[in-house]
Structures are given as C-alpha cells and as structure tokens.
Structure prediction request, 199 residues.
Amino acid sequence: MRRQSLTMIVAFAILASKPQAFGADAGNRFLAELLGRPLERQGESFACFSREYDDAHLSAHPQQQVAFVRALVAARAPATPSPMYQVTLAFRFRGRAETLTAVAECGGGKPRDSVRGGARCAGPGDAETRLALVGRQAVVMTIPGGADLWAPGPTDQRHDTVANPFGPDDKAFRLVRTDLKQCEDLAFERQKPLRPHEP
Prediction:
C-alpha cells in the first residue's frame, strides 16, 4: 500500500513539473483548433490559411473582386480563459497588382469564441470579421460589410488606406490551412522564419 502511495506521489510530481498547455480545458478551444495545437503557457503560436481563386471560379462569380486571400493567426501567451489573438489578412484583387492588408483582433468578443459558434473579431477597421471552423483544415472567414484595407508600405507609415475594395460577392471566404512559409510576409515585425510555436 505504501509503495503504491509513493508511486502516485511521484507521478503527480512529474505531471506538475511539466509545462501545461492551454486548450479545451483552460480556455479557448476554438483557438486551439484554429492553431492546430493547444496554446502554450509561454511564447507565441501561429497558423496560416490561404485561398487562391482560379479563373473558372472568378468567371462564374463576376461580382467577386478578391482573387487571393491569406490569414496569419498569431496568439501570444500568457493564455487566459479568454485569450486574445490577432489575424493578419492579405488580399489581392482583380485589376490590382499590390497586396492589401488588414488586421482583426479576436478572442475578446461577446459571445465568446466556441467551436460551434466560431469567433467574432474586431476589424479590420470598423468592420467585424467572423471565423468558423470547417473540420481541422479549413476556416470560413466572413466580412459581411467589407472593410477599408491598408496600402503596401512600412508598418510605421501605414496610414494610407484603400476605401472598401470588396465587391458584392466578397463576403465569405473558405481558407485552407497551409504551410507557415506562405504567411511569413504577414509577420511584419519578425526577423526570422515562422514556426508553429516559438517558446
């Protein structure tokens, strides 16, 4: 009996010494699914989603202006029961050579994020962005009323905006999880390659 008690004490000590991750138990299960991993106690976690529309799709949707869209999800510890995270967006439109960007702040909205109900994010600008999971590899991003976007340029000079370039058919975008390398240019202030988690 004493031996069994000692074994249990040792097991609990080992578990307590391991860094714990924040996921379904401690907070935002939606964010954990979005990142593809629980949010750790320390560091920053990333995920990348993208979609490129081919000529056939654009021909069938003449009122859609978005030809390409990417989303970089960045969540920084410490994790709280309702952790905040950021989604940096990049869009390329028909007839425009430059890529336009924007940011949505997520995690602090009401109702709170949930796997079933998704997330409501503030931004870009005065708009609201909604996120909904589709399995583990895709997310539907909705910007119902369009939004003003940032013109290219250094982050400290990003005061030039492009007035709502979205078309009538640019309201919902189904993005697929992709390699983080596809979103590295959206991590504007980082000087090294992205990894799923940076301790």
